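debug: dumping io for the single-chain case to check the tokenizer round-trip. Nothing else runs in this session.
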Amino acid sequence: MNTGTRATADQLHTGLIDLLVARGTVTSPQVEAALRAVPRHSFVPDSPLETAYAPDDAVVTKRDADGVALSSASAPGVVAAMLEQLDVRPGMRILEIGAGTGYNAALLATLTGPTGHVVTVDIDADVVAGARDALAATGFTHVETLTADGAQGHAPGAPYDRIIVTAGAWDLPPAWWQQLAPAGRLVVPLRITGGTSRAIAFDRENDHLTSRSMITCGFLAMRGIDARDEPVLTLATGVNLLLNEGGTAAAEPMSDALTQPSTRTRSGVTVRSGQPFQDLDLWLATTSPGFCRIIAAPDAVTSDLVTPAFRWGGAALTNSTDSFAYLTIRPAEPENANTSDGRPTFELGVRAHGPDSDALTQVLLDQIRRWDDEHRDSIPRIDAHLKPAQPVAGTIIDKPHSVLAVTW
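debug: decoded output
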């Protein structure tokens, strides 16, 4: 790297961390110091510097023969947020599930210092080799980099003070419970139900895990023995319903519903620009039968074929036969818009398709309004129990190895 390129890389690196601090993503001095110490571009050498230091962009580093992404470097903003959740201290033993490019392992090694130890595992030998080379080239030869199925962890290095998973997990395999220290913390992007995911920081409390924080995120799904396929129903080009595991729906009638005129209904529930409401989808996912997610390509949105609340999709309900409804958002009517601070106001609503539109719309409206009345400002808690143990309260979500209880 020549002098000019190195100067540009340094400027972009500094600018990225400054931005993450200003946003409030980075809140601790130790995470800030680690991010400043480890240059991300060294772990994505084939990407332009601007891409390497883009705060919200993941970099795909491996695809299969069909072009499907198999491995990536997570967006720096997500990396930083999950490191804050993990709360690494010097001297800790860390297990990372998903080696990626090695960047996160380098940050973990910086945080845990010379008296700690970091083990990173990945199911893909090519990914492991690349991560090992990048770590060696940047001076992190002490990181233990291994090829293994992440669902099995790495028992020889246990117990671990911290376990961090950097792939979308459907469940919490027994090995993670067995290898986590009694006072340990697990941070995992967990697919809770109906395509709804959160990166959750779980603390061990005696015989179960209790969430301490959660952030909205998206990760490539885990591969290996604990991989799960979530059913996808294609309604039209660029429009899919992501059903809950084991969920079914009638493809042809549901596709036909999309070709018919839809109903659009305002809820009266408003949100201000910049005001988070991401826990609404978790509320809907854990309270509404038939919950699913609508996934939309940009062309489907710009053509008004579908208009989900977020540009990529969002919360939806289906009657499993011939109708579906989903969450929308649009500028609020003047009488509902409080613009005293200059921030625009938006109103949540429902768009529905099919003969059962009215009923699904009412269910979704009722739950949106209940969330607004009772839970807008509450923080959901998720307790996880390893089977055969069973929780006694909350909305119960059954997984192959564990049982989740969601309470508000």
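debug: round-trip ok. The chain has two domains: 54-215, 232-375.
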